[in-house]
Structure formats: structure tokens, C-alpha cells
Design a protein that fits this description.
153 residues; alpha+beta; 2 domains; three-stranded antiparallel sheet; 5 helices
């Protein structure tokens, strides 16, 4: 049995086995299917096929590099989301009630709210942020990790 490759747009579109290279009718657009004997060659579907040399090669993986604008937009969204989440928790009914009965907590809460408002006033906000220490303690290594609501209050 021969290993036959159907080549479409300089790629191995399909691999199959056959006694001989079949003769397929033309496509509706009039082009003839290109069938190539790949017996004994290590190839796979999706590989590039060079019509001039008859050599099939594994394609290079496509690596997407984010543009600086995309990176800035991603960081901005993360930073906006982080501040909103922290403020929502600090301004929750539970947090306000706790501040009513615990003066030390009320003072810490006021400090945290104030520091978040200062973050939003930074010159390159929201792309570049210098976070207060208490926020860094919540997100020590992975800023995208979810934080438990109890840790914020």
C-alpha cells in the first residue's frame, strides 16, 4: 500500500492509503486534485508541501505577540477590575456595619479606601499602577488570581 497525500494550497490536506495514486476528476472550478506519493516519508496532515522540491515539512507554530496597545489595554482592564472589586468589598453593607461597631476596623477601612482613590489618581492610571502594600499582600505573585472577599475586608 502506498501513503498518498492530497495537497491543497501547499498543505497536506488528507493522507490515505491506496494501491496506486488514484485519478480523481477535476474540482468544480476545473483544477485537478494534486495527489502525491508519500510512502516511506514521515508526514502528517497540515504539513507544508513545497511543489517545487516535493518536500513536506512540519509547519512552524504560529506564535501570537500582543502589541503594546493590547498589553496596555489588558493591564488597564485588570487594574480597573481590581480597584472596582476592592472598593465594592470595602463599601459593602457588611463592611460598613463592621466599621460602625469596630473603630480599629473603621480606621483601616478608611485608609484602604483612601489609598485606592490615590491609586486612581496616579499619572499613568490605569495602565501603570503602584499598588499600596496591603493590596500587594493580597496579590503576592499572580495579580489575576481571585481573592477571597474576607481577605479584602
Amino acid at each position: 500500500m502506498k501513503k498518498i497525500a492530497l495537497i491543497v494550497n501547499n498543505k497536506i490536506h488528507n493522507l490515505f492509503e491506496s494501491e496506486d495514486i488514484p485519478h480523481w476528476p477535476p474540482y468544480p472550478d476545473g483544477t485537478t486534485p494534486l495527489l502525491v506519493d508519500m510512502t516511506g516519508k514521515e508526514v502528517d496532515e497540515g504539513w507544508d508541501y513545497d511543489l517545487a522540491t516535493g518536500i513536506a515539512t512540519e509547519p512552524e507554530p504560529v506564535v501570537y505577540e500582543m502589541s503594546q496597545d493590547e498589553k496596555d489595554s489588558m493591564h488597564s482592564n485588570q487594574n480597573l477590575s481590581r480597584v472596582e472589586t476592592l472598593l465594592e468589598n470595602l463599601l459593602s453593607i457588611e463592611s460598613r456595619a463592621k466599621a460602625e461597631i469596630d473603630p480599629k476596623y473603621a480606621e483601616e477601612r478608611t485608609h484602604k479606601i483612601s489609598s485606592l482613590l490615590e491609586v486612581r489618581a496616579q499619572p499613568n492610571w490605569p495602565v501603570e499602577v503602584e499598588w499600596p502594600d496591603w493590596v500587594l499582600a493580597l496579590y503576592p505573585s499572580q495579580p489575576e488570581e481571585p481573592v477571597e472577599e474576607e481577605d479584602i475586608k
